[in-house]
Specification:
mainly beta, Immunoglobulin-like, 9-stranded antiparallel β-sheet, 6-stranded mixed β-sheet, 4 helices, elongated
Length: 468
């Protein structure tokens, strides 16, 4: 849970801090900047959002001095608003800093569907990031680690036995020791990397790709040794069933350049072989909602415009579920109004975005609330979200912890016809039936009973007269 809180705070920093809208087209298309304070282990992010259509947008992000252009990730968000679902797609370009320091980013432009959208110049502060530690449980050929000058090629997963529906992240990287004495040169990675990805890509899984279009370079430490990691591929997968996932051993081709100058240098083709990888998903416990709710570790963040209110006052309630599971499986929250509270849905938004080494899913629900009776009203009675908790290995519930303190007189559910100008029903809900004169001295029930009694007496009289 501590990791989720850290990821959540970081994601809020990335998504929640004010970002300058550097340009906007007539269609409302905007280009935005992510965090301007990062470390050497993080990336500068520039992105735009556009409504989903049948045709993918044609776009191009520019090159930026002192930053390496890595790749583009894509994420979709569904927004329920005013009874309609609006889907948007976000394209995020990642730039890796060349080092630490303050870098001035000049004004440049992004091309989207033939439109040129420029941003104003800004400064990015890049601090030196800590050396990342590779998990010691990764399967790495021991012969690759016998010599500190040996590089190795690795396909790894952060989980070996995920639950069905739980996300596991697969990486494909080449590691070169910091004190490497052999000059190595990549051999047509533009051709061999796509082929290797096709060979190792897991089947029968939902994929959320990090969108690396060129290698990401990182400084890492593994078993006390320092390496430079060249990460070629990264994606998070969600297994659709419990079938075993087998990733075969792969051969990565590199050129080894010998001593000498110019044409005299000896160039030799060498291969680095990755270890095969087996991932065995576990079935979820038997439950009516198995396969219908997200699987992962989630946290609920909620807010309300005011906790102490009066009856009839309109409030805005916002709930955000965020974690490492697939947010697409969150149900559309429907809350029924009752005698105490009236609910009206305003919007629902779902998205899956890459953050560091994980895919983070989030769902945001916004409701309009009108309390109608005084007292203390627990929102946990109305707002709860069920999911499978991978930390506790059981189905769990996120429940609202807010309590409204409502004061004022009770509000009955009257009709509201004030807006009907000149209509025959205007203000009818405020009319008192006693103001109708004929209703003051006649009780219709007694009148009906009197008429029925009179008819019965008449029939008995006529029946007796007929016998005589």
């Amino acid at each position: 849970m501590r990791q989720i809180i850290i990821l959540f705070l970081g994601l809020l920093f990335f998504l929640g801090v004010p970002k300058p809208i550097v340009a906007q087209t007539r269609e409302g298309l905007t280009v935005q900047i992510g965090s301007k304070s990062i470390t050497t282990n993080e990336n500068l992010v520039i992105y735009f959002s556009i409504p989903v259509s049948d045709q993918s947008p044609v776009y191009q992000f520019p090159e930026i001095p002192n930053f390496k252009k890595l790749g583009v990730s894509r994420s979709k968000a569904s927004l329920f608003q005013n009874g309609q679902v609006v889907q948007t797609q976000t394209f995020s370009q990642y730039y890796q800093p060349a080092g630490s320091g303050n870098f001035a980013i000049p004004a440049q432009e992004v091309q989207v569907n033939g439109q040129q959208i420029s941003w104003e110049s800004f400064v990015v502060q890049v601090a030196e990031g800590a050396t990342e530690e590779i998990a010691n449980d990764l399967v790495v050929p021991e012969e690759s680690l016998t010599n500190t000058n040996e590089a190795f090629f690795l396909v790894s997963s952060n989980l070996r036995n995920p639950f069905v529906g739980q996300g596991f992240t697969v990486k494909m990287s080449f590691y070169v020791p910091e004190n490497n004495a052999i000059e190595l040169v990549f051999d047509r990675n533009d051709l061999q990397i796509p082929e290797l990805i096709q060979q190792m890509r897991p089947r029968n899984c939902w994929e959320e790709n990090f969108g690396l279009q060129s290698e990401r370079i990182l400084k890492v430490k593994f078993r006390g040794k320092r390496y430079t990691e060249y990460r070629f591929f990264q994606a998070t997968y969600f297994a659709l069933d419990n079938q075993v996932i087998r990733i075969p051993s792969l051969n990565f081709r590199v050129k080894e350049v010998g001593a000498g100058r110019g044409l005299e240098r000896n160039i030799k083709i060498i291969y680095f072989k990755s270890t095969s990888l087996t991932i065995t998903p576990k079935l979820l416990p038997r439950h009516p909602l198995a396969g219908k709710v997200p699987v992962g570790s989630f946290k609920l963040e909620e807010s309300i415009s005011q906790k102490a209110v009066r009856t009839g006052q309109t409030l805005i309630y916002r709930a955000r579920m965020i974690g490492d599971g697939n947010s697409i499986l969150w149900d559309s929250k429907e809350v029924d109004s009752d005698y105490f509270v009236e609910f009206s849905p305003v919007s629902t938004e779902r998205s899956v975005v890459p953050f560091r080494d994980q895919m983070i899913g989030q769902k945001t629900d916004i409701f309009k609330i009108i309390p109608e009776q005084p007292g203390q009203i627990s929102m946990g009675k109305y707002f709860k979200w069920i999911y499978f908790n991978t930390d506790k290995e059981r189905f769990d519930t996120l429940r609202s912890s807010l309590v409204l303190v409502v004061k004022g007189p009770p509000i009955d559910r009257f009709l509201h016809t004030e807006e009907e100008s000149g209509g025959i029903y205007n203000q009818i809900e405020k009319k008192d039936s006693l103001t109708v004169l004929w209703n003051r001295w006649i009780n219709w029930r007694q009148l009906v009973n009197f008429v029925i009694l009179l008819l019965m007496i008449t029939l008995l009289f006529l029946f007796g007269k007929a016998k005589k």
